[in-house]
Amino acid sequence: MNSEKVISRNKKPFNKLLYITPIAFIASGRSALNNFESNQNWRLALSFLLFLFCGLIVIFFINAIKQQTKNTPALIISSKGIIDNISIANAGMINWNEIVKFEILKSAGHPHLFIFVKETDKFIMDQPWLKKGMITQLSKDKGSPIAIDLNQVKTDSIDLLNHLNELKTTHNNI
Questions:
Q1: What is the pTM of this model?
Q2: E-only strand ranges, the chain
Q3: What is the three-state SS of 97-134?
Q4: Where exactly are the structural domains of the chain?
Q5: Which of 47, 73, 81, 173 shows the smallest number of beta carbons within 10 Å?
Q6: How confident is the model over 141-163, as pLDDT tens digits?
Q7: In sequence order, which residues have a C-beta less than 8 Å from that of residue 107 and are 6 or more positions away?
Q8: 120-124, long-range: CB within 8 Å, 24+ apart, which pairs?
């Protein structure tokens, strides 16, 4: 069992974001400028909110470009465990003895592979404050801090789940 299985990233979701983002930026930016030129308070407030929205769009656009340029595999499955390079927790190496179970659950409307681990705090405590809050909430809601969006990996979700369960069973019997 020395072979590794490398699972690539699916970059199609980020391609869509790269196309949609500039259109949304132009539309909201134009609307913000039109409202800013008026002297009505509610329109000034609306333009302020639209400018904030434009800033958020720029952040999404930059993130999409970063995701497009990443060449690391999403997951590497080996005899030692799983290397996670794609979940929000970006857990890195997860040894087989740390893993309790795998489950596919919906989160934010998308199927996610949840990796349930013995010590959830280990994967939460070294995160930046915003990411830590999101991962903590995910752990409270679903029971695991490690959720891999199956739309972002190039593999069949059922085959992946079966393969991981098989390897986990094999590892437990060693």
A1: 0.73
A2: 5-7, 75-77, 81-84, 92-95, 99-107, 110-117, 146-149
A3: HHEEEEEEEEECCEEEEEEEECCHHHHCCCCCHHHHHH
A4: 10-69, 75-172
A5: 173
A6: 999 999 998 988 999 999 999 99
A7: 138, 141, 142, 147
A8: 120/144, 120/145, 122/98, 123/89, 123/91, 124/89
